[in-house]
Fold this sequence. Notes:
This protein is an alpha/beta fold. Helix content is 37%, strand content 14%. The protein is built from ten helices and nine strands. It has helices spanning 15-30, 54-65, 86-96, 110-117, 133-147, 165-176, 206-209, 234-241, 245-250, 281-299, and strands at residues 43-48, 69-72, 100-105, 121-127, 154-158, 180-184, 201-203, 215-218, 256-258. Strands 7-6-5-8-9 form a five-stranded parallel β-sheet. The chain has a four-stranded parallel β-sheet with strand order 2-1-3-4, with helices on both faces. Helix 1 (15-30) packs across helix 5 (133-147), helix 5 packs across helix 6 and helix 5 crosses helix 10. Phosphoric acid mono(formamide)ester binds next to helix 2.
Amino acid sequence: MTQARHFLDLDEAKRAEVEQLVMRAREHKRGLPEAGRLRRGRLVVAMFFEPSTRTALSFAVSAAKLGAQWLDFSTGTSSLSKGESLEDTMRTLRAIGADAIVVRHSESGFPHELARHFAGSIINAGDGCHAHPTQGILDALTLVEEFETLDGRHLVIAGDIEHSRVARSSARAAWLLGAKVTLCGPPLLLPSTTPAWGFAARETDLDAVLPSADALMLLRIQNERDSGAELPPRSDLAFGYGLDERRLALLAPHAIVMHPGPVNRGVEIADQLVTHERSRIERQVQNGVFARMAVLEACLEPPA
Length: 304
Ligand code: CP
């Protein structure tokens, strides 16, 4: 969490913060009799400027499970389209009684901009190529459920890393919990070497890293975030970085397969492997509810 009561990214997060959220998410998953009273009466506003199925719906379910109210801010029909400033919109939402805003936007840094104007909590539901911190927590939860401790475990993330906010948040969360992280993709889709990525290894040959992976996370090619650079053809990506039966056999018997969704079947993962016994894709979606309960609970004040 970058500052008190906002949840913007995991860039400055500490291991203890991620551990605490994962632990609380596990408690929510086991079921707490008082869950529905924990944040009763709090108002959470959803501002989704980009499409979403998993994140938007699981946040709505999380809010309901905590007793909070979930209100959809219809971005297309709001007064933003009449030229109202973000600052005034934030003031308006606060005046209406919003305690938190869950925001998704194509622009990296947009939630941080909202946080400058809103007196309540801003929770990032994905901003451009930058961050998707609740995905990071739900993926950490999925890994911890599988392996209990991530110390010494190896997470391989394959595909379009450069444009992936999921990669940035999920890699960081897993690394903070002790995992070794390898980013694997064609050079064009690997991020340039920066201190922010200093913790991760890089690889262009997926077959070479599969035998040492405990978890393989596949990523969708982010056509919508292509800034003009030529993207490899989908057939090349499928050939070089897609999971098929041959590559599944290269994984250790205990290794699991993850994907944040939505999936391009037949590109990053073969159709029949989406629901394979080693796939944790549906588990990730399910865990999104509990991870987001933990985040909402941390960001919202308890009822008076
Ligand atoms: N993983 C993820 O963010 O999915 P949605 O775009 O459906 O929310």
